[in-house]
Amino acid sequence: MPSALPRLPDRQAAALIGAYRRSVAARRNRTLVLAAVFVVLILLSGHLAEVRPGTLVSNIANFGNYLAKTVPSLSVQSFGSDVKAWYWNFPSWLKLLGETLLISYLGTLFGGLVGFSLCFLASANLVSNRWLRLGTKRLLEFCRTVPSVVFALLFVIAFGLGPMAGVLALTIHTAGALGKLFAEVVENIDMKPVEGLSSTGAGWVQTVRFAVLPQVLANFTSYSLLRFEINVREAGVMGFVGAGGIGQEFLVAIRNFYYTDVSAILLMIVATVITIDLLTEQLRHRLTDARGVA
């Protein structure tokens, strides 16, 4: 037989209900205060950054008009000749796009090698010398803090226009970014193989080679592929400051109001980036799956 629930005296029940309502009201007030602070910070940030919604609304039509002008006139009857006229400079653009990919590839390769060399010196579980570790970490921070386009501008001034400035800029920024990621991977390894080798009298280099590298190579490769994706996008912008690649031609088309050239080059860049993203994503998934199986 179900028993009746005990009922609190009215005085105690009223006290509990009052406490509950006060708690809910206090939580609601805190939420409102936080929301008000959040809104004030957004408005203050927008004011300091001179973000003017009125300007955006009044000029948004110009953006639409510009995009409309970049769309070429294509007809079904003469589709082939229209596309040919749209991509009238395709061989030259393709060559510059290839140059962009080479800049990305070399920047990723050289930067990855530098990051690989420095990451072990920045790992707390491998280097006991605090000053060496901190110095290496600060160097990596400097390399990745300065935007790669700023490095490219400096190298253009120093070495002149051309892809070399782009490669050097991407190398430095990639070394800083990958060096940090690699060091974090190394700091999270299983230390038992390291301790085992060290107990046999193995040197630091031998320990890294045989106890650390087998644990981190898959992650290193995955991060390098991800960085290559990023560098392809960044290399496309390098041309804006004269560091070679398709970006330089893209900037010329924008400045001279060659509307259909802008859309043609932009589509080539987007298609290339998407293709590389898909390919590297497949490779990274295979590496992840292989690591999971192992």
From TrEMBL:
InterPro entries: MetI-like, MetI-like_sf, PhnE/PtxC. It comes from Labrys wisconsinensis. SUPFAM superfamilies: MetI-like. It is a multi-pass membrane protein. PROSITE patterns: ABC_TM1. The chain crosses the membrane at residues 31-49, 102-127, 148-172, 257-279. Keywords: Cell membrane, Membrane, Transmembrane, Transmembrane helix, Transport. Gene3D superfamilies: MetI-like. This is Phosphonate transport system permease protein. Its main location: membrane. Residues 97-280 form the ABC transmembrane type-1 domain. Pfam families: BPD_transp_1. It is found in: Cell membrane. It comes from the Bacteria. Belongs to the binding-protein-dependent transport system permease family.
